[in-house]
Amino acid sequence: MQSETKSRVDQITSPAGQPVTVLRFEGDIASTSKAAVLGTYQALPKSEVKLLLLDFTKVDYINSSGIAVIIQLLIEAAGAGQKVSAFGLSAHFNKVFTMVGITKYAGLFPTQVEALASL
Amino acid sequence: MSGKKSTTVEVRLPTRLGFEKVAMATASSVAKLMGFPDDRVEDLKTAVAEACINAIEHGNSLNEKLSVGVVLSAGTDELEVKVIDDGTGIKHQPAKPDIDRKMHGEEDPRGMGMFLIQALVDEAEWVAGTDGKSSYVRLVIKLDKGA
């Protein structure tokens, strides 16, 4: 019943000329998303990734188990000294992420342009 | 959906993760018929989803022989949702999640469902079944909130 989580990795450049890795998610973010979210992140070359954006533009449903998977990603990113921001969350999930305190560890932005400008 | 009589809608879900979406869609339809604004409908959907996930994972322990009952009672100015499972109910409320403790590995990254339910609806109570099963969570969302 849960829509499979798809993920894609893009490499882009910030306005300041720094390399930025973008993890783009699609579908549901739930307990079944561990491989698509955490697995894709863990496959990135840690020493090369310093700036990471999470794209939720095509995500319709996130539950507390999915938020836990995102927190696991943030824990690993913090350990690797990476800066993480997210964009494309609906107003509702922006509120939910703020409620659980994720904004302390990842900036939330409406669009990719605004997220990139913050780096 | 006018008038003072309460209107009841019941859904029975299989004990399988993912089927909480059926309850979400039903709750969303009823709330929209009652005239709830979009942001409150989204709050309700997340609260109902988390209540159903708790019922599936903890109340029914993922036992597919059991089902989860969802009863929506639409009054004139509030919507009550009961999510019923075959568990014994919760023994104590978990502590409010602490993102710093989670980030430092001192707390499980999971365990935010009950917090989200309480934060997103106007009333939430967990009731243990008197016969050791048929426990339920009762959620209420009020129509005038945020209108």
Biggest sheet features of chain B: 5 strands, antiparallel
By CATH, the superfamily of chain B comes out as Histidine kinase-like ATPase, C-terminal domain
CA gyration radius of chain A, whole angstroms: 13 Å
Please give the CATH class of chain B: Alpha Beta
Q: H/E element string of chain B?
A: EHHEEHHEE
Mean pLDDT of chain A: 94
Given the helix and strand composition of chain A, which structural class is it? alpha/beta
CATH architecture of chain B: 2-Layer Sandwich
First and last CA, distance of chain B: 18 Å
Strand content of chain A: 25-35%
Architecture of chain A in CATH? 2-Layer Sandwich
Defining key terms:
heterodimer; A: 119 residues; alpha/beta; Transcription Regulator spoIIAA; B: 147 residues; alpha+beta; Heat Shock Protein 90; globular
Account of the protein in words:
- The complex is a heterodimer of chains A (119) and B (147).
- With 119 residues, chain A is an alpha/beta fold.
- Chain A has helices at residues 34-42, 64-79, 91-99, 112-117; strands spanning 6-13, 19-29, 51-62, 83-87, 107-109.
- Chain B has 147 residues and is an alpha+beta fold.
- Chain B has one domain (7-142): Heat Shock Protein 90 (2-Layer Sandwich).
- In chain B, 34% of the residues lie in helices and 25% in strands.
- Chain B is built from four helices and five strands; from the N terminus they run E-H-H-E-E-H-H-E-E.
- Chain B has a five-stranded antiparallel beta sheet, with helices on one face.
- The chains are: A alpha/beta (119), B alpha+beta (147).
- At the A-B interface, helix 2 and helix 3 of A face helix 1, helix 2, helix 3 and helix 4 of B.
In short:
The complex is a heterodimer of chains A (119) and B (147). Chain A is of the alpha/beta class.
Task: Please render the helix and strand layout as text.
The complex is a heterodimer of chains A (119) and B (147).
Chain A (H helix, E strand, L loop, with lengths): L5 E8 L5 E11 L4 H9 L8 E12 L1 H16 L3 E5 L3 H9 L7 E3 L2 H6 L2
Parallel strand pairs in A: 2-3, 3-4, 4-5
Antiparallel strand pairs in A: 1-2
Chain B lengths: L6 E8 L5 H15 L3 H22 L7 E8 L3 E8 L13 H5 L9 H8 L2 E5 L7 E8 L5
Helix pairs in contact in B: 1-2, 2-4
